[in-house]
Amino acid sequence: MDYSTYRDLKIRRLEPGILEIVMGEEGGKLSTATARLHAELARIWLDVDRDPDTRVAILRGAGKGFSAGGDLAMVEQITTDFAARARVWREARDLVYNVINCSKMVVSAMHGPAVGAGLVVGLLADVSIAAKNARIIDGHTRLGVAAGDHAAIVWPLLCGMAKAKYYLLTCEQISGEEAERIGLVSLCCDEAELQAKALEVARKLAAGAQTALRWTKYSLNNWLRLAGPSFDASLALEFLGFSGPEVKEGIASHREKRKPSFPPAPEDF
Questions:
Q1: What is the CATH classification number for the domain harbouring 91?
Q2: How many domains in the chain?
Q3: Which of these, 24, 29, 181, 225, is most buried using a 10 Å CB contact count?
């Protein structure tokens, strides 16, 4: 499989059967979901699925954290450009379903901030590992749009409806330790051990009976497929929100680093 076309994702073979996918630059800024990264993150799982040399893929972030939110320039374009909004909606849909339908095992290793498109894969991974210093945040409602992406399809299954509603409605951050406690992630460890732990888990999966593992994953992910209509609705409502007034205040407050002051909802809503 030729991964040379990917530019924002850094891809290398760690050892036979195990592929590493890295967002961001070592020692650099947090990986921000630019238009290119968003597209690559949606597409990569199709190639991983077809790659005869890959049994397990590890996704991690380089530098100070796992992933930042969407690039504000791209978000602003979505609010004004219908073609851009339609393209990003399709990529956001494909990202979720491509991870769910990827037959290969996916392991995520999250440290520091874990937000945005990266978090989609981080929590949909077959085994999700968070460092204790991870700060998991779904910030959709803080931006002024409905919690789309992966939220409705997987959070209630992972941590229960009560916790899912609390964190998705308040956008309160969750530490790695708390995420493990409530069942949002599979495992938690010190940041210094994160990459080694991810590789340890990947080796176990790579050494397993691949047909049995893949069919087990397929069967378990039917729970997510059953939630597909809820996900489709949440994503449609998120992108409907990108054409409304609340997201404009959300973007402005992010740029100005202040609390948002959202306009009142229409009386007949």
A1: 3.90.226.10
A2: 1
A3: 24
